[in-house]
Design a protein that fits this description.
The structure is a homodimer of 315-residue chains.
Chain A lengths: L6 H16 L11 H11 L6 H17 L3 H26 L9 E2 L2 E2 L1 H5 L1 H21 L6 H18 L4 H10 L13 H26 L4 H28 L2 H4 L5 H4 L5 H5 L1 H21 L6 H11 L3
Antiparallel strand pairs in A: 1-2
Helix pairs in contact in A: 1-4, 2-6, 3-4, 3-9, 3-15, 4-6, 4-9, 7-9, 8-9, 9-10, 10-14, 10-15, 14-15
């Protein structure tokens, strides 16, 4: 018996795997011109929680636990998808921060990319991060096994669908099109529209992280379905907590401008439900995920710890 | 014996296949919010030559001819890649036209997307077109054949690599970083740097179109290598002719602002070599491709007609 590993140690180990793999996830200079390679790297290396990649690895872990396969092998299979998810998440931040979008000048405690590299190069670096995510998925994990090749193609589909018009891009478009100014904070947006927008903008990629990990690790249809529902609940919890932190945390905690959503009159969970009720809703998401996973035959899994981490985070 | 088909009829038939497939290449509303779906569709439906998809189909044709397989089947296999290439080409135009990039207001005879939909929505629509290209490649052609699944994943890699930092995004970054203003038209850019920039910015995706068609149709390594060289020569010819047309054609012919590169002091082939020599260089690319293809055992193939079309086009 190996001794039980604390959540903190588990997160540190997964984060170290992800950081090491991200260091090789982009094409090097001079294959990729330094001017755009360094811009991509600037945003990718700004840190962040690495939630999506860790969630992907934890989902692969959960499937390995259920199937009785080697978790280290499952991590190795899932690592390219984990990195691709972080590349896509990073591109979405770079583009969302642009003057034509949210016009943010600080992100993860550093000036945003368009501030340091100019708008044109920030647009291109975002395009590059998105594209390189798929180049990476096409390249790794290296395997001649037709089952693994088929799963890799499925992962391309899971991630592209979550990032595209039905997912993240669609959600950002809805967010951009919402103009609550002039009708009072959040007044024109009802709770259902708010939830639908966030389910696309933030939830879809978080869900895809869990699903991609489950698929590449060889989960069967019922395991993948259970982990998908779990990912959906985590995505919702994540957004609720994001809104809570926007009210409660300081800009220094967040590494970006706090209170911006409320100031912009954007609809938020605290604005609609109050702080206490919002926090309770986030916790309930994780409790529901626990029920789902137990029903699907998953034993103790780190996935639920990841859910609790999402709810308890302070930035 | 079926009667020989004219190039015009061949192009019309391929273009009809592509247009029909493009009509279903994006997720429909309300799965994809109409506001961004319509923006993507605006640029995709603006027409254009559909050169990259047709080149992809012609390469698949050439491989089918060499292998003695059914060309209609090769077209069906190659059509998703053909559409994905056009989605990516279209996204690149939308982003290149942005105020932070080339700041163009007309494209394919219509106002550019950011003019009609705003900068933020144009950035998002471009992101969506790029992402949906990979969603499409993950979805089609539908097949349970492990060989086809493996080829599809290869095609994802071919296209993503050509579109990413080592290809199109890298080329656009080099173009953006070149600032010939202040040192006279093209003075600071030598011919090698010009060629290297265009090989990435325009050549890489044209080459990928030919390679993707050859790969998905089941071409062996030597066939794919020959078609890759052919694609590289076509890409170079395309750029030379683009520069020639920028000098010779009118804005009405081009559907975009003519003479813009020269006015901006951007380095062009006519500026470096003169018009007559530039035209000769473009024709020589196609002659070289013909030699390559013959040496690789390809008989008469539409690929060379496509090359001649690239050189003889007037817009």
């Amino acid at each position: 018996m190996t001794p039980p590993v604390t959540l903190e140690a588990y997160l540190d180990a997964r984060r170290a795997e992800v950081e090491a793999a991200l260091a090789h996830a982009l094409p090097p200079a001079p294959d990729c011109p330094a001017i755009v390679g360094e811009a991509m790297r600037y945003s990718l290396d700004a840190g962040g929680k690495r939630l999506r990649p860790i969630l992907c690895l934890a989902a692969a872990d959960a499937v390995a636990g259920q199937r009785g396969t080697d978790p280290a092998e499952a991590h190795a299979l899932a690592l390219p998808a984990a990195c691709a998810l972080e590349l896509i998440h990073t591109y979405s931040l770079v583009h969302d921060d642009l003057p034509a979008m949210d016009n943010d000048t600080m992100r993860r405690g550093k000036p945003t990319l368009h501030v340091v590299a100019g708008e044109g190069m920030a647009i291109l670096a975002g395009d590059g991060l998105l594209t390189e995510a798929f180049a990476l998925l096409a390249r790794e994990p290296v395997s001649e096994d037709p089952a693994v090749i088929s799963r890799r193609l499925q992962v391309v589909g899971v991630i592209a669908t979550a990032a595209g018009g039905t997912g993240m891009v669609g959600g950002q478009a809805l967010d951009l099109a919402m103009d609550p100014q002039g009708s009072g904070p959040g007044a024109s947006i009802d709770a259902a529209a708010l939830r639908a927008m966030h389910a696309r903008k933030t939830g879809a990629l978080i869900t895809a992280a869990a699903v991609a990990g489950a698929v590449i690790a060889g989960g069967d249809a019922s395991a993948v379905a259970a982990i998908r529902r779990c990912g959906e609940r985590f995505g919702l919890a994540f957004q609720i907590v994001d809104d809570v932190l926007d009210v409660e945390a300081t800009s220094a905690d967040l590494g970006k401008t706090a209170g911006k959503d409320a100031a912009a009159g954007k609809p938020t969970y605290p604005a609609l439900y109050g702080l206490a009720e919002s926090k309770q809703m986030a916790r309930a998401c994780i409790d529901d995920a626990a029920t789902d996973l137990r029903a699907a035959g998953f034993g103790d899994t780190r996935l639920l710890d990841i859910g609790r981490w999402i709810v308890d985070r302070t930035h």
